[in-house]
Amino acid sequence: MVHKIPVSPQVLELVWLYRDYTTTVTPDVVKFLATFPSLEAVKIDSGIVDTAHFKHFVGSCGRLKKLELGMSTTSIFRPQLVPVQKLRIQDPRSIDLSLLQSLIIGTDDFPMLLEALFADSKPARLLSFTITCTANYSDLSSVWHFLNMFSSTIQHLTLDTHGMTGDELPPPLRSSMICSPCPSLHTFTLTGLHDPKSCGGFCSEMVRWLPTLFRYLPGRLTTLELKFTAVCHQEFEAVFSSRYGWRKLATSILKLYPTFTRIVIWLNTDSQFFRFDDRMALVALSKEKMPDLGPIQVEVEFGDQYYR
Prior knowledge:
Order of helices and strands: EHEHEEHEHEEHEHEHE
Strand content: 15-25%
Helix content: 10-25%
Mean pLDDT: 82
Strand order of the largest sheet: 1-2-3-4-5-6-7-8-9-10
């Protein structure tokens, strides 16, 4: 049936979701991918038997602008499968990542995975680099290693805190981990800030931890995005408390980035009772309760689009 699918140049995005099974890149899979010659964005959320199959899959997607690797791709590196699952493609597709602008990583094995990808081709101008909730970046040296590859072009860096607790914050960074200058870096996003009402807990610890991180990230940061999630909208009221240490955070950031101008606070809840009036009340509360941060403007936004 695969060969009967009509060529669809209008399709720009593809999600390969195959979590319960391991993908083998057969000629039929290659034919299927060839029916979408205009792909710009691909998300892979499936185990793939080995690096050869993985690289051929990505190569068969064409010259992508956006690539997302989901949590299930952790299973692609299984040495015991390599001898029995050989790549049976006469003309394997080479990877061309030269046009890649956005990279989203959601797998714990991202260092090994990216090494395999970039061995053959590297983005000429990567603009956005995101490590999502399923990735284990407690050792930030791995993140910094790849960030260094694109330090001259990167504009937006996103880290997700899902699954971490205050006790699991990355240890103090080493001076050897200072990233290369990032002259284009203007936005840093921290997502997955849960239970904001606990001002002595995880969220406030993360906010206080940020200046430590920023000391190792030379750039021209102008915007910090903090994305909070709560069960109900009433919990968001605590975000605007002085107990979060907003003034201290602002002072620390301005010392490192004199051109810094914005903190954007994103609020998201699955509650069906999060009405327009509730949102406007939170905006008004932010103006009333947030301390004056000098030249830094505070904006409140609502939504669940965490990775852009």
